[in-house]
From TrEMBL:
This is Uncharacterized protein. GO terms for biological process: cellular response to amino acid stimulus; cellular response to starvation; positive regulation of cell growth; regulation of autophagy; TORC1 signaling. It comes from Engystomops pustulosus. GO terms for molecular function: protein-macromolecule adaptor activity. It comes from the Eukaryota. Signal peptide: none annotated. GO terms for cellular component: cytoplasm; TORC1 complex.
Length: 92
């Protein structure tokens, strides 16, 4: 996956994914900084991967939340609002 990217998490506890992604991105940046300082580091021999700072994270709910379930609405309501906003607005 390249950068910049947009990630959409339409699931319960989606905030956990965002938190984990941020932690992963920070760890990756730190490893690349160490590799830049130490030319003998294994990562120093590889081309630099794109920065994860340019990724946009869209989560349907927070880390401790569940998605609402309504039989009259699509199961992926958050994604539906992003992809077909007029259709969803008219159904609501």
């Amino acid at each position: 996956m390249g950068s910049p990217s947009i990630f959409v998490y339409d699931c319960s506890n989606a905030g956990l994914i965002v938190k984990s992604f941020k932690q992963f991105a920070l760890q990756r940046e730190q490893e690349l900084e160490v590799a830049a300082i130490n030319p003998s580091h294994p990562l120093a021999q590889m081309p630099l991967p794109p920065s994860m700072k340019n990724c946009i994270q869209l989560a349907a709910c927070d880390a401790e939340e569940l998605l609402p379930m309504n039989p009259d609405l699509p199961a992926d309501l958050f994604t539906s609002c992003l992809t077909t906003p007029i259709k969803i607005a008219l159904r609501w």
